[in-house]
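COMPLEX REQUEST
Ligand: FE2/S2 (inorganic) cluster
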Amino acid sequence: MTRPSPGRVGEVAAVATVSFTVNDRPVTLAWEQGATLLDLLRDELRLTAAKEGCGGGTCGCCTVLVDGRPALACQKPAAQVAGRAVVTLEGLPERQRRLLAAAFVAEGALQCGFCTPGIVVRAASLLNRGKAGDRAAVHRALAGHLCRCTGYLPIVRALDRAGQAWERGVETLPGGQAAAHGVGTSAPRYRGEAYALGEVPFVADLVVPGMLHAAVVLSEHPRARVRAVHVSEALAMPGVVRVLTAADVPGRRHVGLIVDDWPVLVASGEATRCVGDVLAVVVADSRRRARRATAAIRVDYQVLTPVTDPHAALAPSAPALHEGGNLLEACAFARGDVDAALASSAHVVRQRFTTQRIEHAFLEPEACLAVPGPGGLTVYSQGQGVHDDQRQIAAVLGLPPAAVQVELVATGGAFGGKEDLSIQAHAALAAHLVQRPVSLVLTRADSLRLHPKRHPLIMDYEVGCDGEGRLTAVRARLVGDTGAYASVGGKVLERAAGHCCGPYRVPNVDVEARAVYTNNPPCGAMRGFGVPQTAFAIEGCLDELAARVGIDRFKIRSINVLRPGDRFATGQVMTASCGVAATLEAVRDAFYGARHAGIACGIKNTGIGNGLEDTGRVRLRVLPQGRLEILTGFTEMGQGLFTILRQVVAQETGLDPGCMEVATRSELGVECGMTTASRATALASEAARRAAAALAADLAAAPASALAGREYLGEYVCNFTVPPGTDAVNPITHLTFGYATQVVVLDGDGAIARVVAAHDVGRAINPLACRGQIEGAIHMGLGYALSEDFPCPDGRPAVSGLKDLGILKAGEMPEVEVRLLEVPDEVGGYGAKGVGEIGLVPTAAAVASALRAFDGRPRTALPMRADAPRTLRRR
Ligand code: FES
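STATUS: Structure written out below.
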């Protein structure tokens, strides 16, 4: 099916007109009360480079020029642009567009690309003022933008590069669409320049004829019995086509990645479990009308007292939030004799550590377009797993999976937050029932309420060592608030348990981790998946033990760090690919060369493992004229997967990557499961290598143009892992791991001046992308350490927009130096290990270690900024 094109969103009831120029073209447009410049640009003029990321003037994704000055289009009432000259990214001078796009690609300054068009417009204004190389001016300009992927540092470098080229009067930049494209090269990002220029559509940009719009009604209470949902008032509103409630679901009403406990719509008579519960879906002829009509839905509630503390939820007297009680899952395993080891240890640390709930803050809110057709329903998505989406949507509709096709459009950031089904089933249900295309785009406020967060953990640790600092035993008791629904919360706590000792050799281990239901927002997958939490705890214990033994913090890590032949916490024997000691050695100079330095090591599994299969699948389809389609079930969400797949195929076949298109669709044969656990590159690159090798063999006998119609399937299955606690000589719980050591250096005032990050990535298939993943993760890790939070008093989020989340701005980012090491892996394609998550695993712990080095006080709770207000300095 032909994918819909960017275009008009829907009819806007006219109450007045406004005249202005857009990209030098005079326009007169009708607008209705509440319309903004962004509405006019996107809905009426089909100029979709400007994106709606927050609707609140925080993210900067909608930046345009008004009378030559940057302005946020979502904050400009339509009436206020009368007589003004508006320039969008589409209308910038072509030389400026090309220079900026090439600079962004060359510096790796875009990942998901959702924030990029707005930043490019801001950059154009800096070029016009000759300020692109002025670091202070750049930081001031970027203060109006959020980028959740890059950590801003490559954006600053790109502006510098573009500014120099602009001043020199050059027409193009070398290095944009560079010739390098094999494995191990920093090949340019696939469709990078198109992303930078806003030419790659995201789901909210898509339009098809006859399209309707949907909006959701969420619960007002975290726990309340729904007596009735009254829809008649909403149904009578202009443009409203239909209102859906639980009674309209023809198939299964509950979905879930592992446990089907999450109702797509809560039915009358049932109790809500969080303020993200959906009670109704309004379908109307415009997005504005659909959203407006949600306020007319009347819900009759019996309000109940919410359960918001995980320990209270485990009390026998607590009301059961789910049929099976409030304990979602427990993971426990032990090795050796912890009691005896602790009793004979020279030093024992006993400490409780706590971490906070945080939000992914991907810049693209959830969006879905569902289109019914003769062959079934096509769902255009931005989720992290097209096949899991397909399975769940089909179940909700009561259809076989083959009747639903899911196609990835583009993903404007995810970080684990788009693993669960969010509103795909609602859009699909509406389209299925009204038999018209339906687009559903969440407001930022609804997005914050609806999707899972990072788990807050309460971690009680006992850690012993001998008189020289050798670790003797770890006992850990972990409790995670998993919120209202299972999501993958049980697995997050299982992962936290498995990583409870960090990358250290511990002969005696006793761990128990429990994921507990509450009426807080659900918690699930987020970059790090439980491991940044336990890293914060175990690294804090190591710093304390070092102080008690009387050795320095580098030394205690050097004594204990895992080496080949040692056992990971789960008992898995580390192989020759274990590179954590190399990463530690790589930061020796940075640690000892600084007066106030913190240090932490990290380990993060690649692949889900723990007894589950990890599979990568890639199909190469030769098209007419020698073109090639690379199809996979994994999602490109900014991490660079599609670029890497082209590199692999180019490497094996010698074909020019320019002839290759990459896509993710729910076709049979390319199921990969979720794009999660830092596994897509390691698995898919090997699958692509296998497929490409078969193609290369045929290419030896015939040109690609003669092979049109042929397909080559590459599959890589890793099915040799076992669950933690398995009694085996070598219980392999994960197919492999990534490793890191980070040093955080403070200046004389206690502000973070520099982060040095040494990472063993196995093989850097694309070094630029690798560095980008690590820099971006460190930005996220610093925010996690210091400022990010998502408090929910009484089960209600105390934040309403991106501005409240504590995300670091560009001017708050310190210098970051990434040192890539390549200790080849035995399993990952080309020796690659996962790099998507490890970048932030040690960061918060390293910051805590640095603060302790500065003022002598250990930190045991995140975030830490209130306790160290000068740690972040605006530059
Ligand atoms: Fe900036 Fe993704 S590239 S938010």
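REMARKS: Residues 680-699 form the longest helix (20 residues). The longest strand covers residues 471-483.
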